[in-house]
């Protein structure tokens, strides 16, 4: 079982979600996703909008990421409350790459702002949103602690949003009752904004040999 597998919604085209839009009916979780939930080693919250349940999918945060786990959980809980949702599932540690496609069993990735891949739902088996929550670390140093959610204007990818979320499950056709955000989000190949937090972090990685 792959610890990194995190399948996107099959809706075509994907519907970008912004605050103010309705959530839609959502969809049930897949069997492989349940396997990772049932093997989870770290969970917090009671599954209400007041105290959303945050579940780290197996294998959960790595030893190096444990220092950031409480801050990430607090951020995800706050966002879930703002969205009126009671569950969130974290797919992996925070990371600074995004998968753009697959070639066979190989994932093709590009640099991206530091983020967690997450789903939000209204119950233990109902997901409504999925995507990335972008994060800022103390002194913009990835070796230091996560302190808050990144703002749109801080994204290092041209046209990037923060958070960057899509609808999961079916969604009614666009209408006055079901409006769309009409937001264009980046597609590969990404364009890194010179002087951005991401640009500076990538330059530091080059100096350190890519690590």
Essential attributes:
globular; alpha+beta; 9-stranded mixed β-sheet; 16% helix; 211 residues
Description:
By secondary structure, this protein is α+β, with helices and mostly antiparallel strands. Helices cover 16% and strands 28% of the residues. It has helices at residues 31-38, 69-83, 197-207; strands at 16-17, 42-44, 53-56, 87-90, 95-103, 106-123, 126-137, 146-149, 164-167. Strands 1, 2, 3, 4, 5, 6, 7, 8 and 9 form a 9-stranded mixed β-sheet that branches. A hairpin with an 8-residue loop joins strand 7 and strand 8. The longest helix is centred in the middle third of the chain and has 15 residues, at 69-83.
Q: What fraction strand?
A: 25-35%
Compute the number of helices: 3
Query: Mean pLDDT, nearest integer?
Result: 91
Helix content: 10-25%
State the total count of DSSP E strands: 9
Looking at how many chains there are and whether they match, the oligomeric state comes to single chain
